[in-house]
Each structure stands twice: as C-alpha cells, then as structure tokens.
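ok trying again, last paste got cut off:
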Amino acid sequence: MSTPSNATQRDDTRKDLRDGARAAIIGALAPIDGVRSVRFVGSYWEADATTAPGDVDVVVILSTLTRPRFEACRAAVRALGGHVFGLPGLPVQINDTFGPQKLGAGDQIVVHLMIYDVASHRAHVLASPFTCLDWERVDHGYGPSLRETYPVAPIAPPALLDARRGVANYLEDLNAGTVSVRSYTWNVDRTASLAVQQISLDARNRGEFAVHVVKHLLTNLTKVLTGRNEPLTDDALAAAWARWVPSSAALCPEYLAMLAAKRSGVAEYAPRAVDVAIEFAAGFAAALDALIEALPRIVWIRHAATALNDGTFLGQGRDPSVADAAAIAPLAGQWVRVQSSTARRALETAVRLAPGVPVTHDLRLAEIDYGAAEGLTYADLAEQFPAVVRDWQSGGDAAFPGGECHGDVLARLDAAIRDLTQLSGSALVVTHNVVLRTLLGSRLNIPRHDWHRIPVDHVDPIESFVIGDRVVPYLAPARLGAILDCGVGA
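nice, full thing came through this time. structure:
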C-alpha cells in the first residue's frame, strides 16, 4: 500500500486549514442579525495557508446595512485568533475598505472584510463587473451565492475601458502610484455613504498592484471575448498577450517571472514591475480601441409610437402607422444593412432612421402574435382566457390563445441573429417590444418568466456587439440595472 507523499500531505493540511478558517468565519458571522450571505474570495483561499497571509478576502452581504450590523461583523471576525488560520499568536486586523489596498504583514493576519447589503452589492456589480464576475466563481460559503444575490450580465468590450478597474482606471493609478479605495462614512440619519480616496502605495504594494493589473486585464479581455468565466494559466496568459498586445509581447517573460515571485510571497518586487505594467497597459488600451472599432455591431430599435400603443395588445393583427413620423430623427451610423419587421410602423421608422439606405424586410422580426388577445387589455385577457394567465403566474410560457409564446419569438429571433452575425460592419434593426424583451432577456440571462417586465422604450437604441456567434448588449449601467432588476425581483 502506498503512503501519501509529503506534497499530498501538505496539500491536505492547507485544505484543512482553509476549510477550518471558513467554518470559523461563518460561525462568527452567520448568527448576526441581517447576515444573508458570506463568500470567500481572493488568492488566500487557494494559496499556502501555513504562511503569513496577505489580506484574507471575505465578502458579507447583509439584507440591509446598518451601523450596528456593520460593527458586529467587524467585531466577530476580529475576535477570531490566529490559530484559526494556522498561525497561533498572531492578531487579526480588519480592513473594511473597498478596493485593492493591501494591509497584510507578517506580524498580523488582515481580514479584508467587504460588507455590502443587497442594494450596494447591486451598485458594485454595475460599476465593477469584472471584480464581481471573479467572485461569482466562488462556490463555497454561507447563504445565497453572489450571482443569486445580483448577477453580472455578459460584458461588452467597452467596459474594459470605462468600468471601474478598467484600463483607464488602472493606468491612472499606476502612473500616480496610488489606488482608489472606498470606505463607509455614517450619516446623521444612520445611513451610510461611500467616500472615495486615493491611497499612496509603498514600493512593495505598488509592485504587487502592477503585477495584478497585467494579469487581470488579459484575463478580463479573454472573458469578454469567450463568454467564459475562467482564470488563465500562464501559458494562456502569454498567448493572449502575444495575440492582443503584440507591441509589448517581448516583456512577457519578464512579467511571468514577476508573477511567479508574487505567488512565492516575495518581500520585494523588481524595480521594473511598474514600468512593465504601464507599458503593457498603454499598449492594451490602444489595442482595445482598435478591437472595439473593428467589431461588428447591431443597433436595435423599437418602432416609433402609434395611436394603438394604448395599453392594448398590438401585435400582428393590426397594422397602424406611426403617430409622428416627422419627429423621428436620423440615427448616426454607417449601416451595412438596415433590417426591419414588415409591419408598417417598423418600416416607417426604419426609413426615417436611415434615409437613403435600402431596408431589408424580415418576417422573423415581427411582433409576437397575440392571436385572440389582439386589441385586448391585460384585464380582458385575464377574464376571457384565465388559464393562460395562471400559467404565466406559475412561471410558465403559455402561448397567447391562437398565437405565440416567448419561446416561439426566441426561435425566429435566433434565426435572424444567425444571419446578422455573418455581416461585417454595423447593422440597424427595427422591430418590436416583445422581440426586444426576448433579445435582452435571453442575452442577459434573465429568467424567461420575467421577460415581460423588461422596459423597452420607443426609438431608444440598444447597442450590441457581435463577438463570434454571440450578440452582447452594451448598455449604460443605469439602464442595465433597470433590466437586470426584472430578473431578481429588485
């Protein structure tokens, strides 16, 4: 019978320590009033837990944030001794800021305790989707997962430029030698506000931050382009660097040596770490600009309003004109195709939005067929066809009487999208309310029984990027949040 190797025994010891630390932290936090979820994120939970850790990252979600709950969480974790982490005698310090500031030192254990409530976690998802997407990979903890609390939607490439912890944010911090962090301030009405400040970094932490930046930008770009939420191996990271930022690819071997040093717990970073990161990030920003410019786009539009958009079901059974065609202004763009539903209201909108461009008629973009519900109000439908409404209320996708369901619309929309994704350049598509609800619901991973709640205004462009065979909506955070709220009951 073979005996476990020393390496296997060390791995088992590390796993036991991490499991014990998780259990102790959950045991300290779960009894606190309002604690909804606890999740363990960051590198500590995969690293060698028998050495003095850097910050130990823990995310706590409260039902509602109050100062007593906040202080109770801090006190409960601070009371844990170093023995919980396999380091008896070391005190536990709490870092309750939000951001990449590191306080870890060899003479203490720093728990980076990030305390949110549901509302502030939602705000974080919308402002900093890449951080939250990383956290969604965590499957161990207490209570609902972070994705169940509020999900990260598929991310479009421009977020790598303009989101928090995007390349612009990183370059600013790298050049200044600072990181931006947020922390709570408590108001006289007992609510909390987040104050933002720039924290200067010492040489070690500036080097660690620089190494972090390169890895995360390449990892996040790969996630955007593949649609998969997976970490990169060193070989995959090097391949991504060579493909997307070839202008600085010669720096990759030097960077990988720095990354290996970071993993080994190096006390000092190579003096060139920041220079390497800045050169990489500048090249990354330029390459990203070129990529975004080259990617095909589809801009989706709901037709202009008609007199029959009056609270009754307007589908395929009636064909009104738009109420005010003269008010439809041309939409800026170089369109390789303008594609429209065959309904009069859609065609009239299309020719106004793209004057002089031929319009391709597409029956697949027609509004849902409401069947016998055409012209009825929802109250009329509930009275005349109660079984249909009962099915919807129980989460089903029953078809309108004599008409279609969301699944029918999705099937023909997907067929249209397969053709549209073969185009190069930008396409303009004019269609209808339920079609666009189906587009947004399916592409943003909203449960089908909630698609009817998605807001779609008349002549309000919905931009999307074509990445391979995927169509990824690109929406302002406020608009994206209003749509995602439909799927989480917010």
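cool. The chain has three domains: 1-153, 155-294, 295-488. The two ends are 57 Å apart (CA to CA).
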